[in-house]
């Protein structure tokens, strides 16, 4: 039996050490658009499916689109250049569009909580094109009542949060050399997303998005997805430490927003310090009193 996968499992301590190395000299922003972006410019004002099949030469698979009038293509202006944004109006169309962009006739069975991707397309005509695929749905599958908002207002905020979140992943990729399915990356992306949607970062709001409850080491939401490489018995420690660090992050972002820090400053601040390091710094401060 091949047991090599066991060697890839991390301890909680190993997992919590992840951070990005911040270059001593950062490039001028925004970066130049990647070359493939130019081929999407003609999408403006065109019917989405016609553009994908006629201009980009993607296969016209025999999908039954549920909300074809909700399909749209726009462009996001990120810190590291523009990206095409392809939006859908329901989960079935979201799954179908993900399949089209990756050259598959059959859509994947994605959970209803998954409504966004930063995709590097695999279909031959658009191979290695990177774009954002977003579906209009409540963020993290959280009901509007849990946030004290109307359904429509929460859908609008969800879309702003989701868009900024995915842009943040693209920014770490081009600016810092990577993006990972990791709690740190998700805190960073949701941090910028919360600011875009709400004007601030709230730790309890983030606990809702992650499926955490303050003071507990269990998870009933999407954070568990980002811990799949952590040994099962070690995951409660990760959940507990992420739970703790959210208050630290909220305090840090409150200070940064008060002094009108830029998105670039916020991204670098969050990306360059691991969860373990941030909590260690907090514990050392308390030990002085």
Question: Tags for this entry?
Answer:
disordered N terminus, 289 residues, alpha+beta, 4 strands, 2 domains, 4-stranded mixed β-sheet, 10 helices
Folded structure, characterized:
With 289 residues, the protein is an alpha+beta fold. The chain folds into two domains: 32-137, no CATH class; 151-280, no CATH class. Helices cover 43% and strands 9% of the residues. The protein contains ten helices and four strands, in the order αααββαββαααααα. It has helices spanning 4-7, 12-15, 48-55, 91-101, 151-176, 183-198, 203-210, 235-258, 263-271, 275-287, and strands spanning 72-78, 81-88, 116-120, 130-135. The chain has a four-stranded mixed sheet with strand order 1-2-4-3.
Structural class: alpha+beta
Q: Please compute the radius of gyration using only Cα atoms.
A: 20 Å
Report the oligomer: single chain
Q: Strands of the largest sheet, in order across it?
A: 1-2-4-3
Helix content range: 40-55%
Q: What series of H and E elements makes up the topology?
A: HHHEEHEEHHHHHH
Average residue-wise pLDDT: 94
Biggest sheet features:
4 strands, mixed
Q: Determine the strand fraction and express it as a percent band.
A: 5-15%
Form type: globular
Number of strands: 4
Total helices: the number is 10
Task: Provide the number of structural domains.
Answer: 2
**Between the first and last Cα atoms, what is the distance in angstroms?**
54 Å
User: Which blocks of ≥5 consecutive residues have pLDDT under 50?
Assistant: 1-6
């Amino acid at each position: 039996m091949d047991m090599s996968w066991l060697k890839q499992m991390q301890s909680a301590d190993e997992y919590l050490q992840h951070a990005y190395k911040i270059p001593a000299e950062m490039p001028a922003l925004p970066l130049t658009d990647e070359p493939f972006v130019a081929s999407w410019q003609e999408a403006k004002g065109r019917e989405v499916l016609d553009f994908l099949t006629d201009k980009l030469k993607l296969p016209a698979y025999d999908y039954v689109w549920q909300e074809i009038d909700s399909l749209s293509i726009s462009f996001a202006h990120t810190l590291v250049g523009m990206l095409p944004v392809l939006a859908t109006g329901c989960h079935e169309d979201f799954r179908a569009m993900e399949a089209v962009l990756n050259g598959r006739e059959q859509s994947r069975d994605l959970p209803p909580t998954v409504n966004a991707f930063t995709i590097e397309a695999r279909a031959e005509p658009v191979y290695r094109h990177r774009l954002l695929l977003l579906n209009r749905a409540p963020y993290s599958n959280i009901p509007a009542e849990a946030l004290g908002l109307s359904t429509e207002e929460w859908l609008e905020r969800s879309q702003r949060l989701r868009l900024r979140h995915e842009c943040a992943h693209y920014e770490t990729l081009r600016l810092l050399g990577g993006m990972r399915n990791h709690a740190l990356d998700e805190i960073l992306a949701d941090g910028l997303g919360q600011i875009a949607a709400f004007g601030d970062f709230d730790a309890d709001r983030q606990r809702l998005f992650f499926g955490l409850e303050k003071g507990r080491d269990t998870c009933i939401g999407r954070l568990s997805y980002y811990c799949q490489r952590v040994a099962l018995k070690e995951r409660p420690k990760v959940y507990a430490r992420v739970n703790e660090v959210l208050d630290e992050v909220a305090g840090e972002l409150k200070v940064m927003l008060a002094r009108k820090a830029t998105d670039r400053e916020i991204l670098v601040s969050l990306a360059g310090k691991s969860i373990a390091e941030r909590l260690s710094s907090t514990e050392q401060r308390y030990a002085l009193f």
